[in-house]
Amino acid sequence: MIPRLELKEFRFSIQAAEPVSLPEFFGSALRGAFGHAFRRRVCIFSDAPCETCLLRHTCAYSYVFETPLGPEPGGAGHGGSYAPHPFVLCPPWDSPAELRAGDRLDFHFVLIGRALAYLPYFIVAVEEMGRRGLGPGRGRFRLDEVLEVRPARSRPVYVEGRMSGSAESHPLIWTPEHNPHPDPGELVVQFVTPLRLQTGGRLVVDDFDFGVFFRALVRRIKLLAHYHCGADEPWDIRPVLDLARAVRTLETDCRVTGWLRWSGRQHRDVRLSGLTGFLRIGGELKPILPFLEIGQVIHAGKATAFGFGLYQLNPDFTEGIDA
């Protein structure tokens, strides 16, 4: 079986109606407020946990945030309670400490597979966030516009409170067979936002290299394809991982970066951290380029719903995933 992902990326543009204080780690505040707003608008049993809810397998909130685990083809255990989220949050990482009334701010969502059908729920949840306020002071904002930016370029989806009547576009369809690039010989993998990888419940730091990163990325692609893109047949990832063994880690310069965030589930502050910096790799890279390429869109590692795991390749190979 060849893995296949379907996705779109959307840019949400908001405008502050009053001053909005933004924490240093804006992704955490945005993800937390978004999740609460989504549940308020969707859940009809607000006091019941998803695990015991009768509607668990038909509820939009349960699917998007707590996708129930089923049997995974190939017998490789997921190692968690839920499937990976079918969305990636991309907050601005250079946002100001405060928005003044009238200031605008953009953030992105990447929706994967079946989550594409839930775009209206994402829009309604962001509208709800704006009414209830964001940040420590609960500053209110309004959602001005939603544009599809991948694969379409700036296709209006939502404008001034209404869904746009523009023609529906096809999602980006990725498979590793699409590999138009020549072998660069060397690549730099720049981790823009913290890459959070864990082994045995511990953050991977000292033993981090390209192999550790690539295995996690391929596993993520496999799980997204299975749980959200309808890949029922098993995909044996071992041949792909064998190709990566020929890749050499030429240079590593990474450091631990993190923030404290309030966990509503645990009712306490928890530290969310990961690695930023870069890897320089060399060898026969062409066979693994499609995986590295799509990883720039779907992110890698854990906490991608907070914006973690964003990386960029140098040389740049994003053109192959924009069409």
Structure description:
The structure is a single chain. The chain has 323 residues and is an alpha+beta fold. The chain folds into two domains: 5-173, Alpha-Beta Plaits; 176-321, Alpha-Beta Plaits (2-Layer Sandwich), CATH 3.30.70.1900. It has six helices and 15 strands. The strands form four sheets. Strands 1, 3, 5, 6, 7, 8 and 9 form a seven-stranded antiparallel sheet that branches. Strands 13-14-10-15 form a four-stranded antiparallel sheet. A two-stranded antiparallel ribbon has the order 2-4. The model is unreliable at 74-78 (pLDDT under 50).
Helix count equals: 6
> Using DSSP, what is the number of strands?
15
Task: List unreliable stretches of 5+ residues.
Answer: 74-78
In the CATH hierarchy, what is the architecture of the largest domain at level 2? 2-Layer Sandwich
The figure for the number of domains is 2
Coarse shape: globular
- Which radius of gyration do the C-alpha atoms yield? 20 Å
Structural class: alpha+beta
Q: Output the CATH class name of the largest domain.
A: Alpha Beta
Mean pLDDT: 89
What is the end-to-end distance? 23 Å
Largest sheet: 7 strands, antiparallel
Q: What series of H and E elements makes up the topology?
A: EEHHEEEHEEEEEEEHHEEHE
The CATH topology of the largest domain: Alpha-Beta Plaits
* Beta content: 25-35%
User: What is the helix fraction of residues, given as a range?
Assistant: 10-25%
